[in-house]
Each structure stands twice: as C-alpha cells, then as structure tokens.
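Lecture notes, part 5. Sequence design as translation. It can be helpful to think of inverse folding as translation between two languages: the language of shapes and the language of residues. The source text, in structure tokens, appears below.
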C-alpha cells in the first residue's frame, strides 16, 4: 500500500513539476453533488503530502499503542503463568516430602499450569489418602482426565477401588509386548488387590520381562507369601524354577510364621540330615506353633552334634514359639547372641521379656 501511495505521489509531483516548467500553475476541480473543491495542482500536492504525513503519524501512534498494550497484557499473562509454576513446584516438593497438609494448602491458594492439572489432582488425591480421607481422594481421582487415568492405578488401589485400578492396569497388558513398567505395576496391583491366583499366573507369563534385582524379587515374594500363607504352597510350586530357587527361603519363612508346618517338615528334616543348620535356623526363627515332630528331629540332631551353635539357637526359637519362655531363655543364655542380627534377635528378646529379664534384653540391644 505504501508503494502505491508513493507512486501516486511521484505522479502528482511530476504533473505539478510539468506545469511549473511551462509556467502554468495547473488547475484541479473536484465536484461531488453540491460540493465543489478547486485549486492549483501545487496546492493539492502540498495537501496530499501533509495528509500523507498525518496518516503516517496516526499509523505510527496506533502501532505504538498496540505494542504497549501487548507488552502490558503479556506482563500480566507472564506473571500469572509464573505464579502457577511456583504453585506447582511448591505442591510437588511438598508431595515428595509426604507433607499432605502442605500439598492441600498450596493448591488451595492457586492452581498449577493447565498442562499439569491432572498431576495436581493426583497429588491432591495422594495427600487425601495420606490423611485417611478416601472420599475426598476419590473425588480428586474422578477429576483426572480419561487420558491420564492410566497413570494413577495405584491411587485407585489405595482408595479401595480395586476394580477400577485393575481395569486401568489391564489395558497395557493386552499389548503383544507389555513394557517392564506395565508388568511391574500390574503385579503390584494384583498383590494389593489380593488377586493371588491371577498374580501367580501373571508371574509365570511375564516374569522374564522384569529386570528386577534379587533384592526386588525377594521383597515382592516376601509380601506375597506373607499375605497368602494358606495358599502359598500351591502357588510356590507353580513358580518357574529360577524364581523358586531364589524365593524358597522366603516361602518357608512365611509358612513358619503362619504355623503351616505340614508343608515344611520334609524339607526341614532333610536339611537336618544334610547338615544345613544355618538354613534350618533361618526358618525356625520365624516359628509359630511349632510341630512336635520337628522338635523331636531337632533334639536328635542336637544330641549328635552338640557343638553346632545353630542347632542350639534353633532349639531356643522353637521353645519360645511354643510358649516355653523359661526354657528358651536358658537355651539362649548358652548361645553366641552377639553374632546375631536384629531379625534373629526377636525370639531372644521375647523370651527375656516374658521371663522379666529386662536387663539382658537391654544389654543385648545396646550391643547392637
């Protein structure tokens, strides 16, 4: 447009210059209805130039005003975005530190950025669960968009909404090759929902997709066997060979804690015959309601090998589990207790406490 105006101005200037060269001022007449405007070409050129300058100044002023408005609007918009970002970070750090009250207080004062609204609802749901308010947590979970629901199955489990959680966890498992994260979450969900039969099947099908360390597998198996002691024997037998080897001790400890000796007696007796005394002691330290046959087998082994400290310690554990605290305390007095870890000290401390020998218990703990 500016080029067109400049071209028109040049043409007008040329016309005016032409008339000046021939010593004629030129004449312009503009008539519109009853209105007539007339004058020389020079006058009209001057008016046009002045009008053009005025128009340019007006446009410049408008551009400046628009720029100022944009900067002002951007300032307030940027300030609002900065505040939302600060609120989000404060709430996130509070959640990381398990400060449920701070999470709720932070998000009551402001909202997270729009792209983090689902995560904000998840943090609020977690905070409500930490405070024991499952109804409020459920409300926040329902506010999460459908696209983000697959990210929060554990929160649904914690809110006692097992069916909803497992439905979310099932979706990625239908893929041909589910990811490690999907398998891990699915197994954890089944365990928390106490779907033990489904869990055993899932472990057999997908355990190779998990790059878990030995410690991770043992921690998971310990939780499973403890939560499912009555059915653990059948499900343990269904495990792949590799998992059975590394979780056998945990399985036997959970069975001992539940008093399920009928499943353990053959193996424990075999260990006594083969001299696997430490493995035997590691199981009976968790004993409850010990089996009579097991105590008889242990007594026979102790008569043959009285020099074995693990057998003597195991005898004390079985006596404590049977409620014979005086006998257990006397047996433990002859054991090398300072070499035991805290997990193995539990029956020792219990027998001392039950027989009012608190000083021995205190000194034993102080030595640790």
């Amino acid at each position: 447009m500016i080029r067109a105006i400049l071209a028109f101005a040049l043409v007008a200037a040329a016309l005016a210059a032409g008339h000046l060269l021939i010593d004629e001022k030129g004449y312009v007449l503009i008539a519109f209805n009853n209105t007539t405007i007339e004058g020389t070409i020079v006058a009209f050129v001057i008016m046009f130039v002045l009008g053009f300058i005025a128009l340019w100044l007006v446009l410049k002023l408008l551009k400046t005003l628009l720029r100022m408005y944009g900067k002002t609007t951007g300032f307030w918009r940027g300030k609002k975005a900065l505040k939302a970002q600060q609120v989000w970070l404060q709430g996130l750090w509070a959640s990381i530190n398990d400060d449920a009250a701070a999470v709720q207080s932070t998000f009551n004062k402001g909202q997270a950025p729009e792209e983090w609204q689902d995560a904000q609802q998840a943090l609020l749901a977690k905070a409500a669960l930490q405070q024991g308010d499952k109804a409020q947590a459920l409300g926040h979970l329902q506010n999460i968009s459908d696209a983000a629901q697959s990210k929060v199955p554990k929160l649904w489990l914690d809110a006692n909404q097992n069916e909803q959680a497992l439905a979310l966890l099932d979706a990625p498992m239908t893929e041909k090759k589910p990811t490690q994260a999907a398998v891990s979450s699915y197994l954890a969900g089944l365990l928390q929902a106490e779907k033990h039969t489904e869990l055993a099947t899932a472990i057999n099908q997908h355990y190779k997709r998990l790059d878990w360390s030995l410690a991770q597998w043992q921690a998971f198996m310990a939780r499973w066997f403890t939560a499912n002691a009555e059915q653990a024997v059948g499900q343990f037998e269904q495990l792949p060979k590799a998992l059975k080897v590394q979780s056998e001790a945990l399985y036997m400890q959970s069975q001992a804690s539940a008093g399920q000796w009928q499943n353990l007696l053959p193996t424990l007796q075999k260990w006594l015959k083969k001299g696997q005394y430490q493995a035997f002691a590691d199981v009976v330290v968790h004993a409850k309601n010990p089996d009579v046959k097991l105590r008889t087998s242990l007594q026979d082994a102790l008569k043959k090998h009285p020099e074995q400290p693990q057998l003597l310690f195991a005898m004390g554990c079985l006596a404590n589990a049977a409620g014979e605290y005086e006998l257990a305390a006397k047996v433990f007095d002859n054991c090398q207790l300072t070499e035991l870890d805290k997990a193995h000290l539990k029956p020792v401390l219990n027998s001392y406490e039950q027989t009012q020998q608190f000083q021995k218990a205190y000194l034993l703990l102080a030595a640790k």
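The translated text above is only one of many valid answers, since several sequences can fold into similar shapes. Residues 20 and 164 are 92 Å apart (CA to CA).
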